[in-house]
């Protein structure tokens, strides 16, 4: 299936797609918003850049500084990141130009670790995107603001993405209903002043529908937890993983090689047969090289109990099969909401003039959208 997926609020933004690289397009839109907004009034901007992510593409000029990088994926990745750096700078300049900067907070965050096969690097952390190892769940980030009390410091406390909501609400002097049991905490004093984080644990994930580890069992989980289930949890210094945590190699930087996976054979690891529980002291061993599960069974049991407690609050997984009615071909060539309730489908019959007008409008829309015979990936030469 192929469809158009650029939106302006609730409508497909056909007129906004002028072949502009998306990182630059989003930045231009932010500049327009700031230029027309009253800086005396509050504003929240969530800028979800598509970089850095595959497909690895960037405008040609950003490759100039990276000709020496032999690995083509790493070179493209570096070029994309340079464009993103420029975008963040341009957003910051716009905040200053239009009078927002002195009372603003910029949070830069990512959603997961890098993908080494697509130019990313998590070295010296273990694993990659899509895994529960630190290379998959740790993400780079920073907070920049004139409002920070301690600038230029590194925060080593526990902070999770769910903490941004209560933190930002508090900074904006908003109120959160006390009856709402949020997963997040207000961590502004932790970030700004270096105080201890109110957070003591992070549930990285529990995935009940992921492929079960063949050798996992309730017995291996001391009757507390079925270790066939893919899960990971952090409690203070300790991190526990069960099931199949995913690809577990340590992948050195690829900047100087184009030789394929053999270049890191010395760091490859074969998971022990039958093993479905791992325990690490992440503070002392952030690279997850020393498994302590057999040495500290008491800690393992404590973390398994915490996993079990979290799991009791989980709602049932809803993962419906693909539905052909979602095909953009049936919805004006656009990806978007498609499901209609039965009472919405039963509409009164339209007269001939209305039908003709609708048919003409649909034809015009399809001409603009194109027939979408295949999804083609644009190629931007290096």
Walk me through this protein's architecture:
With 382 residues, the protein is of the alpha+beta class. The chain has helices at 22-36, 72-97, 134-137, 164-171, 188-193, 297-312, 342-345, 352-369, and strands spanning 7-8, 11-12, 106-109, 141-144, 201-207, 230-235, 238-242, 277-281. Helix content is 25%, strand content 9%. A hairpin with a 2-residue loop joins strand 1 (7-8) and strand 2 (11-12). It is globular and about 60 Å long.
* Fraction of helical residues: 25-40%
Order of helices and strands: EEHHEHEHHEEEEHHH
According to DSSP, the number of beta strands is 8
Segments where pLDDT lies below 50 for 5+ residues? 369-373, 377-382
Distance between the termini: 29 Å
Mean pLDDT: 87
Task: Please report which band the strand proportion falls in: under 5%, 5-15%, 15-25%, 25-35%, 35-45% or over 45%.
Answer: 5-15%
Biggest sheet: strand arrangement: 5-6-7-8
Sketch the major β-sheet. Answer: 4 strands, antiparallel
How many helices? Answer: 8
What is the approximate shape?
A: globular
Radius of gyration: 25 Å
Structural class: alpha+beta
């Amino acid at each position: 299936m192929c469809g158009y997926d650029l939106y302006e609020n609730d409508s497909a933004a056909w007129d906004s797609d002028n072949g502009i690289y998306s990182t630059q397009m989003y930045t231009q839109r932010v500049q327009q918003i700031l230029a027309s907004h009253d800086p005396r009034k509050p504003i929240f901007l969530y800028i979800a850049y598509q970089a850095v992510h595959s497909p690895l593409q960037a405008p040609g000029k950003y490759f100039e500084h990276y000709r020496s990088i032999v690995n083509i994926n790493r070179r493209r990745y570096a070029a994309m990141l340079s464009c993103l750096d420029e975008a963040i700078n341009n957003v910051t300049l716009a905040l200053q130009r239009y009078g927002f900067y002195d009372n603003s907070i910029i949070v830069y965050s990512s959603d997961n670790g890098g993908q080494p096969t697509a130019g990313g690097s998590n070295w010296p952390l273990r694993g990659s995107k899509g895994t529960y190892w630190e290379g998959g769940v740790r993400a780079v980030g920073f907070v920049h603001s004139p409002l920070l009390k301690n600038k230029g410091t590194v925060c080593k406390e526990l902070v999770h993405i769910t903490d941004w909501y209560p933190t930002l609400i508090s900074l904006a002097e908003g109120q959160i209903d006390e009856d709402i049991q949020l997963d997040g905490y207000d961590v502004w004093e932790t970030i700004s002043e270096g105080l201890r984080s109110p957070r003591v644990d992070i549930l990285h994930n529990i995935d009940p529908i992921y492929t079960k580890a063949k050798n996992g069992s309730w017995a291996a989980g001391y009757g507390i937890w079925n270790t066939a289930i893919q899960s990971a949890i952090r409690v203070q210094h300790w991190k526990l993983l069960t099931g199949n945590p995913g690809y577990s190699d340590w992948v050195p930087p690829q900047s100087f090689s184009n030789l394929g996976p053999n270049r890191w054979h010395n760091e490859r690891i074969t998971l022990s047969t039958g093993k479905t529980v791992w325990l690490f002291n992440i503070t002392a061993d952030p690279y997850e090289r020393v498994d302590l599960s057999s040495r500290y069974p008491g800690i393992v049991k404590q973390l398994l109990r915490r996993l079990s407690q979290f799991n009791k609050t989980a709602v049932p997984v809803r993962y419906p099969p693909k539905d052909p009615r979602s095909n953009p071909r049936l919805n004006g060539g656009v990806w978007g909401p498609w499901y209609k309730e039965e009472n919405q489908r039963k509409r009164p019959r339209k007269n001939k003039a209305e039908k003709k007008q609708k048919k003409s409008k649909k034809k015009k829309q399809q001409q603009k959208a194109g027939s979408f015979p295949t999804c083609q990936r644009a190629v931007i030469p290096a």
